[in-house]
Amino acid sequence: MEKVTKTERIQNRKRIGLIYDVCLHLARQDIPFRGNNEKEHSLNKGNFLEMLQFMMDRIPEFSKQMGSAAANAKYTSPSIQKELIRCAADL
């Protein structure tokens, strides 16, 4: 099993922090996260994925962080979104 390097851990933490900020913003505004169709070709993938894309289009550092994610470490799944909201509620 390949070990995660210190640099990768730092990048993953930054990525999760950015995703957490998007989750927190949507939750505070009582905006639903998911859309009906989150597939690549969809015109509207839901508020969460659309907000991530909006930020990636406008903030180079955010785009760099999200673009460097391994396929198994994107942290954008619905289960991760729910877990981040649960963590915020516990604070």
Automatic annotation (TrEMBL):
| A Pfam family that the UniProt record links to this protein | DUF4371
InterPro entries the UniProt entry points to: DUF4371 (IPR025398)
The residue ranges of the DUF4371 domain are 6-88
Q: What's the name of the protein?
A: DUF4371 domain-containing protein
Q: Which organism is it from?
A: Phytophthora nicotianae P1569
Write the lineage as a comma-separated list: Eukaryota, Sar, Stramenopiles, Oomycota, Peronosporomycetes
